[in-house]
């Protein structure tokens, strides 16, 4: 049976864990060939590869522009083309702005925002030459609204939304699209790591910290699951979505409606 992504080649950054891995698995299940990227123990990377049909892996560090561009070249060489780029790798750090370590600021801006620029700049020429491409930047609800103590993350994710719009305008007349996905809190290691520090800060259980503090702005009061984000990504690269360009699509349990 023909599948929606048969014959398509995708590169997904930060796909050894969480949202990126779920997107990689969904794309492979839909018939795509995928290149993985991200950090992790060798056995975890091997498990990610095993769960994506033995997908090739590139170890590029998203804070290193030359490695990012090499990764894009490697994906094009491995597949003969690149149809889909998902910029997903990201890190978090929480601190009052006056105490925010400058090196954490630099790392978050580089990994969460500038990496998207370098990967897009490297991938676009091939997409434009073949007149086909789908670029997804995994931004965040924090790309559209702010929360305190997350200055670098909020700045980087707002930057990703701006980058997405500007790229979309540049490619608007080609069969290439660039969109952002803006999740609320998704059940992944990155977000789950924020629960216990909140419990300690407010002297409550992890359960209360999750519902009353972490998910205070997420009206659904439940985690978004990685599979839900992967389904949105799959729709954005599937048939019929070519008219969607430069959008920041929320998947946040109602957060942005409030
Ligand atoms: P995660 O920690 O499970 O996965 C992050 C991935 O990025 C991992 O594969 C990790 O190895 C990789 N990575 C980190 N630094 C890297 C680097 N320097 N070079 C290459 N890879 C690197 O986190 P996640 O929650 O799945 O996050 C994925 C994306 O979704 C991030 O951009 C994050 O900001 C965004 N996001 C997450 C949530 C959430 O609640 N989990 C909400 C909104 C947006």
Write up this protein.
By secondary structure, the chain is α/β, with parallel strands linked by helices. It has nine helices and seven strands; from the N terminus they run E-H-E-H-E-H-E-H-E-H-E-H-H-H-H-E. The chain has a seven-stranded parallel β-sheet, sandwiched between helices. Helix 7 (195-202) packs across helix 8. It is globular, with a radius of gyration of 18 Å. The structure holds nicotinamide-adenine-dinucleotide. Nicotinamide-adenine-dinucleotide is lined by residues 14-20, 37-40, 61-63, 88-91, 111-112, 138, 140, 183, 185-186, 188-191.
Notable traits:
258 residues; alpha/beta; Rossmann fold; seven-stranded parallel β-sheet; 9 helices; 7 strands; globular; binds nicotinamide-adenine-dinucleotide
The fold-level CATH name of the largest domain is Rossmann fold
Structural class assignment: alpha/beta
Largest sheet: 7 strands, parallel
Q: Specify Rg, calculated over alpha carbons.
A: 18 Å
**Are any ligands bound, and if so which?**
nicotinamide-adenine-dinucleotide
Return the string of H and E elements.
Answer: EHEHEHEHEHEHHHHE
Number of strands: 7
The share of residues in helices is 40-55%
Q: Which shape, going by the Cα principal axes?
A: globular
- Name the poorly predicted regions: none
Strand content: 5-15%
- The strands making up the biggest β-sheet line up spatially as 3-2-1-4-5-6-7
- Mean pLDDT rating: 97
CATH superfamily grouping of the largest domain: NAD(P)-binding Rossmann-like Domain
Distance separating the two termini? 43 Å
The overall number of domains is: 2
Continuous helix count: 9
């Amino acid at each position: 049976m023909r599948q929606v992504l048969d014959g398509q080649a995708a590169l997904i950054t930060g796909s050894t864990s969480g949202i990126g891995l779920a997107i990689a698995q969904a794309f492979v299940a839909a018939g795509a060939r995928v290149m993985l990227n991200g950090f992790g123990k060798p056995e975890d990377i091997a498990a990610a590869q095993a769960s994506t049909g033995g997908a090739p892996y590139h170890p590029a560090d998203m804070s290193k522009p030359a490695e990012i561009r090499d990764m894009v070249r490697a994906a094009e060489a491995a597949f003969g083309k690149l149809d889909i780029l998902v910029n997903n790798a990201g890190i978090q750090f929480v601190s009052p702005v006056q105490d925010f370590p400058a090196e954490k600021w630099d790392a978050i801006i580089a990994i969460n925002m500038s990496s998207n620029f370098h990967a897009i700049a490297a991938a676009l020429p091939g997409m434009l030459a073949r007149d086909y491409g789908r670029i997804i930047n995994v931004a965040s609800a924090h790309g559209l609204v702010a929360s305190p103590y997350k200055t670098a993350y909020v700045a980087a994710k707002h930057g990703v939304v701006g980058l997405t719009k500007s790229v979309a305008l540049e490619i608007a007349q080609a069969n290439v699209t660039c969109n952002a996905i803006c999740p609320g809190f998704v059940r992944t290691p990155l977000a789950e790591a924020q629960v216990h520090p909140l419990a300690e800060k407010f002297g409550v259980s992890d359960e209360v910290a999750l519902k009353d503090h972490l998910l205070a702005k997420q009206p659904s009061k439940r985690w978004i699951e990685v599979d839900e984000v992967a389904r949105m990504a799959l729709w954005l690269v599937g048939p019929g979505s070519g008219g969607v360009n430069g959008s920041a699509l929320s998947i946040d349990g109602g957060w942005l409606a409030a």
